[in-house]
Write a structure and sequence with these properties.
The complex is a heterotrimer of chains A (467), B (99) and C (373).
Chain A (H helix, E strand, L loop, with lengths): L1 E9 L3 H12 L4 E4 L13 H4 L10 H4 L1 H9 L4 E3 L3 E6 L3 E5 L4 E11 L3 E3 L12 E3 H11 L1 E3 L3 E6 L1 H12 L6 E4 L5 H5 L3 H6 L1 H17 L3 E2 L2 E8 L3 E8 L2 E6 L2 E6 L1 E3 L2 H6 L3 E4 L4 E4 L12 E3 L9 H18 L5 H19 L2 H7 L4 H4 L6 E3 L4 E2 H9 L5 H8 L12 H12 L3 H4 L11 E2 H13 L3
Parallel strand pairs in A: 1-2, 1-6, 2-3, 6-20, 8-16, 10-11, 10-16, 11-12
Antiparallel strand pairs in A: 4-5, 5-6, 7-17, 13-14, 14-15, 18-19, 21-22
Chain B lengths: L1 E3 L9 E5 L2 E5 L5 H8 L5 E2 L6 E2 L12 E4 L2 E5 L10 E6 L7
Parallel strand pairs in B: 2-8, 4-8
Antiparallel strand pairs in B: 2-3, 4-5, 6-7, 6-8
Chain C lengths: L4 E4 L3 H12 L4 E5 L7 H4 L3 E2 L9 H12 L1 H5 L10 E5 L2 H16 L6 E4 H7 L9 E5 L3 E2 L2 H14 L3 E4 L5 E5 L2 E5 L4 E4 L1 E4 L5 H7 L2 E2 L3 E3 L2 E5 L9 E4 L2 E7 L5 E4 L5 E3 L4 E3 L2 H14 L7 E7 L2 E3 L6 E4 L6 E5 L9 H14 L18 E2 L2
Parallel strand pairs in C: 1-2, 1-12, 2-8, 4-16, 12-24
Antiparallel strand pairs in C: 3-7, 4-6, 5-6, 9-10, 10-11, 13-25, 14-22, 15-18, 15-21, 16-17, 17-18, 19-20, 23-24
Chain lengths: 467, 99, 373
């Protein structure tokens, strides 16, 4: 069964929700399709349910602000398909999607991808052990279930999310056993070129510094300039080893939360064949977009973190701009009106994004994470190591597609989500070329693994449709 | 590995079964969250080598939290919300698909 | 040094030709427009099948089958070849009768490799087969191999024997100058007295450059592969009345094909998968192996292949020009015969003729082909 819309939005985070609110107000018949059961994406995950709980204050005012956005979305008149996984998109546009119960097709004249970000994979020795998780994972546990790690637990990495989560724990009355910060000494030096942006994003800076001060005052051990993190254990994590000022230490831990920043989720946009570029400032692939968020394919727009990391507030603004752009492309808004509506949004967006170059420079991930040692697993699904990749390059593989055929790296159910970035950087480093030249894994449908039954249900549904 | 914050309102709504053992769960929990509370050990064994694995990302992009839910194999536990009486089974290596 | 032979196309057939020619002391240069095994050869289901071949192909396929038995000594790599048999399943008595008729036809021609098995035997060999399946046509000695690995094994063997491979070299022009061919690619020009056209989906473009007209269409057969599951199937399975090719590999994944077509884009060397047709492929899987309904498909892909009007390949000397040989148009079933085709090409180039049974595959069987108007 196919239902038709003017605009289909994939993703119910701040970008998707804000886009749907604006597009509905502009008269576009809009649908938002999302794999989570409730609106909010990751940043505002479960905010409707959680904000009603007495524990909600521990999550902070930024998170709770998401509630208002979700309420406006619910009132907007946009259609909403939660718990729905999109596994194939064909131009222009048919979205093949499955819920637990059925498979169906959503048809739309314009498509907006607002699928957000994922954590940068953090490969290191032992990272596949039970007990090693991302900081984002732990934050999701806190938001959806009010769960926290049992002691002893450590946090290792760098970036705003590390500070935010650690502060949320303190507000909940929980203290990690320690914080291992991987920002190298002197990082501030390389960020100095962007200090102008930092100063105009002073509100963000002030928040970050305040969180840091609270953490220092809390008595939680904070170690900086840490490298060589390893997880040690047999059936599960038992100890964490690290190196600081040339000295290796290890501590008991049952949970280790890691984080080295977030990267745009480009799986869908790459599968569609939209143009992407390797961005050296953020060490990831980014889709090529104009200032309406339009991608290189007609009828396709991209907004929010999946187009480039900017944070929740920037994402919402980008969503609105993209909705205006879509309305203009569909002739529901003339050019002059579109420019006029977008003008204040563009100013707001610039303000939100001002801090980014500074943060990107300070929190640039270390080489050890991007081009790990030989024995480190880089493809978790297929258990291929960095050495397997280097050997494949030595045998003549020049890019990720060949390395994949040769080693099976990238062939597992995560479809390269946890290994594609590492593959590109390893191949580039082994060949002595730029990551842009090494290339990126070819992403193919299905966009998520889908059962034979779900695929067959599509055929059964089409069999019932009128010719 | 994880525990519920004390005095969380409605600490437990209902129960589910994990490998035959009854476990407390709360509306809004995912299967993966319940497993992380239920024990410290692996959630599954890798289909390649049998190595111990457990949830990593909790947002559906790592495919480590694959469990059998009410007879359906290889479900991403972090994307499935628990319901009363749900039967959850850990997977040991490659799932059987014999009749 | 000028090569003796330029092979256009670095797929399995180009690599097999290069290997066989090099083994007989020819200096070979292979020009591949993209990368070895990039297209049809890398997307193949890898079925090593004599079962249910067109009668014209059977003799060549049986010769190739004996070469597959010994593939490791041929290319110093076992190519992950396993011979657990191939089955063509009947779901009704009428279909089973058609398989019996085929068996009788083959016996009358002197071929006994295909046998009919009953439902009990079918269930013994494929315990999870759908309950409606009543029997099958079987070749017990057929099997499957890894197509990417096989192609690269032929390539590496050819290189060890002295062949040179240049990738990223798309042939844009061909002309005969005296007794040599001049071959133009964007980066360089090459010369050789003999050309072998193994250009897969682009072979008709190459053929046209020398005045041969080859009636080709581009095939874009879609494949899918599942997550790893516990072992449940040894033989490769197809079905009389379904587009299905179904096998389980050693690592537990299930590889599914059958000829459901995606949307090819030959000019850009790319394609788009067709979601609804993947649904049709899944319906075929669910009918023959109902327990597969709960199994997840992790990846889907397609290749660009050449298809001829009669689905038989074009192998043999050019009718238009000397020193020019064709081997293309395998229409989705060129993997298994490749070792034999490679040997036949070496015979043609070096000896001027071959004992290999390739007479049915001459280009001039197409009434409108042969010399260009």
């Amino acid at each position: 069964m196919t239902e038709s819309f003017d605009l289909a939005v994939v993703g119910a985070g701040p970008a998707g929700l804000a886009a749907a609110i604006r597009s509905s107000a502009l008269g576009l018949k809009t649908v938002v399709v999302d794999e989570q059961p409730a609106p909010g994406g990751q940043i505002y995950r479960a905010v409707e349910a959680t904000s009603r709980s007495p524990r909600a204050a521990a999550l902070g005012p930024d998170y709770l602000r998401g509630r208002e956005l979700v309420e406006r979305f619910r009132a907007s008149g946009a259609h909403y398909q939660p718990s729905t996984q999109v596994w194939q998109i064909e131009p222009s546009w048919s979205l093949f999607a499955s819920t637990a119960a059925s498979t169906h097709v959503v048809s739309a004249r314009h498509l907006l991808l607002a699928v957000g970000a994922t954590e940068r994979p953090v490969p290191f020795s032992g990272w596949t052990l039970p007990g090693v998780m991302t900081v984002g994972a732990a934050q999701i546990m806190l938001k959806t279930s009010f769960m926290v790690p049992k002691p002893p637990f450590w946090i290792a990495g760098q970036g705003p999310l590390v500070l935010l989560y650690a502060t949320q724990l303190l507000d909940a009355g929980i203290r990690p056993d320690g914080l291992l910060l991987t920002t190298p000494k002197g990082a501030i030096g390389r960020a100095l070129g962007h200090v102008g942006g930092a100063l105009s994003g002073w509100r963000y800076l002030r928040k970050g510094l305040a969180m840091m001060r609270r953490l220092k005052r809390s008595g939680v051990p904070i170690l900086s300039d840490v490298e060589g993190i390893e997880a040690i254990g047999g059936e599960r994590l038992e100890r964490v080893s690290y190196r600081r000022a040339g000295v290796t230490q290890n501590v008991a831990a049952s949970t280790l939360l890691v984080h080295e920043g977030v990267v745009p989720s480009t799986h869908m946009s790459l599968a569609l064949g939209a143009a992407h570029d390797w961005d050296d400032a953020t060490l990831c692939m980014k889709p090529r977009l104009d200032d309406w968020g339009k991608a290189s394919l007609p009828g396709l727009s991209i907004a929010g973190d999946c187009g480039g990391i900017g944070g929740a507030e920037a994402a919402a603004v980008q969503g609105e701009i993209a909705a205006i752009g879509a309305a203009q492309a569909l002739d529901k808004l003339d050019d002059a009106a579109a420019q006029r509506d977008a003008l204040p949004l563009r100013k707001a967006l610039a303000a939100h994004l001002a801090i980014r170059p500074f943060l990107d420079a300070i929190y640039r991930p270390r080489a050890a994470i991007r081009t790990p040692d030989d024995n480190v697993i880089v493809c978790r699904c297929e258990e291929r190591t960095a050495k397997d990749v280097r050997d494949a390059v030595a045998s003549g593989c020049i890019g990720p597609a060949q390395v994949k055929s040769f080693t099976r790296a990238g062939m597992g159910p995560c479809q390269g989500r946890q290994c594609a970035l590492t593959l590109t950087e390893l191949i580039a480093s082994a060949r002595g070329v730029s990551p842009a030249e090494a290339g990126y894994l070819r992403i193919r449908p299905p966009l998520k693994p889908v059962t034979i039954g779900e695929l067959a249900a599509l055929d059964e549904a089409s069999a019932k449709e009128p010719a | 590995m994880f525990q519920r914050l004390p005095d969380t309102a409605t600490a437990a709504d209902f129960t589910v079964e994990v490998d035959g053992t009854t476990c407390a769960a709360r509306a809004g929990d995912t299967v993966a969250a319940v497993l992380l509370m239920a024990g410290d050990g692996p959630m599954r064994r890798s289909v390649v080598s049998g190595a111990p694995r457990a949830a990593y990302c909790m947002m559906g992009v790592c495919f480590e939290c694959l469990v059998e839910v009410d007879g359906l194999p290889s479900q991403q536990g972090c994307l499935v919300q628990v319901r009363p009486g749900m039967r959850i089974k850990r997977q040991n290596g490659r799932p059987e698909i014999a009749p | 040094m000028t090569p003796d032979v330029i092979v256009i196309g670095g797929g399995l057939h180009g690599c097999a030709a290069a290997m066989n020619l090099s083994a007989r002391q020819c200096r070979v240069l292979v020009l591949e427009r993209s990368a070895v095994a990039r297209h049809a050869s890398g997307a193949s289901a890898g079925g090593v099948r004599t079962l249910n071949r067109d009668l014209a192909e059977v003799p060549l396929s049986l010769i190739a089958a004996r070469m597959w038995d010994d593939i490791e000594s041929l290319v110093d790599d076992d190519c992950d070849y396993h011979a657990h048999g191939q089955l063509r399943v009947a779901e009704t008595e009428v279909e089973l009768a058609s398989l019996e008729a085929r068996r009788q036809q083959m016996l009358a021609l002197g071929y006994s490799h295909e046998v009919v098995i009953d439902q009990a035997e079918l269930r013994r060999r494929a315990p999870t087969i759908g309950p409606q399946c009543v029997g099958a046509l079987m070749v017990e000695t057929d099997g499957a191999a890894d197509p990417y690995r096989t192609t690269h094994a032929f390539r590496r063997k050819a290189e060890r024997l002295g062949a040179q491979f240049i990738e990223g070299a798309c042939v844009t022009a061909l002309s005969r100058q005296g007794t040599v061919w001049q071959v133009t690619t964007p980066a360089a020009r090459y010369e050789a007295p003999t050309i072998v056209n193994c250009a897969g989906a682009w072979s008709d473009e190459i053929a046209a450059m020398i005045g041969d007209r080859a009636p080709l269409q581009t095939r874009c057969s879609m494949m899918m592969v599942s997550e790893r599951v516990a072992p449940f199937l040894g033989p490769v399975v197809s079905a009389v009345n379904r587009k299905l090719s179904f096998k389980q590999t050693d690592d537990g994944t299930v590889v599914i094909g059958g000829g459901h077509q995606g949307r090819p884009d030959r000019a850009h060397e790319s394609y788009q998968l067709d979601g609804r047709r993947l649904g049709e492929s899944a319906t075929a899987v669910a009918a023959i192996f109902p327990t597969m309904r709960r199994v997840r498909i992790v990846r889907a892909w397609a290749g660009l292949e050449a298809q001829t009007p009669d689905h038989l390949p074009i192998i043999g000397p050019s009718p238009s020009a000397p020193g020019f040989f064709h081997a293309f148009g395998f229409s989705g079933h060129g993997f298994q015969p490749a070792p034999a085709v490679g040997r036949a090409l070496a015979d043609l180039v070096i000896d001027g003729g071959t004992q290999m049974p390739i007479a049915p595959f001459a280009l001039d069987r197409f009434a409108t082909s042969g010399k260009a108007a």
